[in-house]
Write a structure and sequence with these properties.
The structure is a single chain. The chain has 13 helices and 15 strands. By secondary structure, it is an alpha/beta fold. The strands form three sheets. Strands 8-7-6-5-4-3-10-9 form an eight-stranded parallel beta sheet. A five-stranded mixed beta sheet has the order 11-12-13-14-15, with helices on one face. A two-stranded antiparallel sheet has the order 1-2. The protein is elongated.
Length: 413
């Protein structure tokens, strides 16, 4: 069931191709990718992680195939995978040919690491025969080695003067030039099922690079950063770059990369697309007020418990948890189910209608009961979600513990 809303964002038009049964580019929905962190030849572990990622909402999963034992494992992995699989190939063209023969749905190839042109031609021919697309990518780490002495000297001068603008523009220009060189190989082979990527650890360089290649080429673009770091910092770096590009209509697939369990990559990629209206929400949305001196309950604890319990509901109901009745009603306008909590009690609203006042020890249970009830009615076709149309009338202020009423204040959050 998909009852969420999906906004219309003007997308940069690109060619369309398919990764297995999933369309990419040409205005198709943006594809979420991730990559296993297992050794691919450990089949059971790899399949388990692929299934976990797919269950979390990942559309396509990439696996590393550095050795022959990895490509030997592919047929069994493919038989058990619920999503298309991409083989990550770097230095050995034999791994690409073996992966293609095994039936993978896409190849990630770096022709710059395979010096023999005839070997690259063989990989392209094999992909054409099977209808398999190839991702061609450049990143800052691989292209800087190609900067000639003049460019490197200019780069050092820029950095010594504290200027990164010159370094960024030269690096972006180099990335575009390298991609042009790579693509000549594919054009010579009349092969156009290509996806492009240009990555850096620097969010501003990523933004500039993808803007440039979007202007220059009409191939689908795979968005991502290299070495983004752990989720705590990597999500900020990633969202700064990828959110900017997606909001501009650039990008057809994306991977948020963390030094952590890849499940977090998928969860954050989904939330990014939800937040930009680029994917219809299929699961609950939780909003909560920031903590402040007016809060008279343990809001952080309550929000954490609500968040964990909402994973049991398969409906994009919007739930608001507010720690007071001052700013809450205005801030959670559009919520399907909301609670305004005060000292010892909370008021629960369902789609703008005040439903019940409950003691503090029943807040969680009562809120979740209302969420489940609404989700069941939506599923049965007896109710619809608000989609930002609910007007919430502020409840009477909850009395303080001493019996006095809190003053109303202008929304200052």
């Amino acid at each position: 069931m998909n009852t969420g809303t999906e906004h219309t964002t003007k997308r940069q038009r690109t060619r369309q191709m398919r990764i297995g049964n999933i369309p990419v580019g040409g205005g198709a929905p943006i594809v979420i990718q991730s990559m296993t962190s297992t050794y691919t030849y450990e089949i059971d572990n790899t399949v388990a992680q692929i299934r976990k990622l797919a269950a979390a909402g990942c559309d396509v999963v990439r696996v590393a195939v550095p050795d022959a034992k990895d490509t030997l494992a592919l047929p069994e992995i493919l038989d058990q995978s619920p999503v298309p699989i991409v083989a990550d190939v770097h230095f050995h063209y034999e791994r690409a040919l073996e992966a293609i023969e095994a039936g993978v749905h896409k190849i990630r190839l770096n022709p710059g690491n395979i010096q023999d042109r005839q070997k690259v031609d063989r990989v392209i021919a094999a992909c054409r025969e099977r209808g398999i697309p190839i991702r061609v990518g450049v990143n800052e780490g691989s292209v800087v080695e190609r900067i000639d002495k003049e460019v490197r000297s200019a780069q050092k001068a820029d950095l010594a003067q504290g200027s990164t603008q010159g370094h960024s523009s030269r690096l972006v220009a180099l990335m575009v030039r390298v991609l042009e060189e790579y693509l000549r190989i594919f054009e010579d082979n009349n092969f156009h099922d290509v996806v492009l990527a240009a990555k850096s650890i620097d969010a501003t360089i990523v933004i500039d690079a993808y803007r440039a290649i979007s202007d220059r080429f009409d191939y689908p673009l795979h968005l991502g950063l290299t070495h983004a770091g752990p989720p705590e910092t990597g999500r900020i770096r990633s969202i700064a770059a990828l959110g900017t590009l997606l909001a501009e209509g650039i990008g057809d697939t994306l991977r948020i990369s963390y030094a952590s369990d890849p499940i977090y990559e998928v969860e954050d990629a989904k939330e990014l697309l939800y937040s930009l209206g680029l994917r219809a929400r299929t699961e609950p949305e939780l909003i909560a007020c920031p903590t402040c001196g007016r809060i008279e309950i343990d809001l952080v604890d309550l929000v954490g418990k609500v968040r964990r319990k909402l994973t049991e509901i398969n409906c994009p109901v919007k739930v608001a948890v507010m720690g007071c009745v001052v700013n809450g009603p205005g801030e959670c306008e559009g919520a399907d189910v909301a609670i305004f909590a005060g000292k010892g009690k909370g008021i629960i609203y369902v789609q703008g209608e005040q439903k019940q006042t409950v003691p503090e020890d029943r807040m969680l249970e009562a809120l979740l009961d209302e969420c489940r009830s609404l989700a069941s009615r939506v599923e049965a076709g007896k109710a619809t979600l608000s989609n930002q149309t609910v007007d919430i009338v502020p409840p009477d202020p909850l009395p303080r513990s001493d019996g006095s009423l809190p003053l109303r204040v202008v929304n200052d959050s």
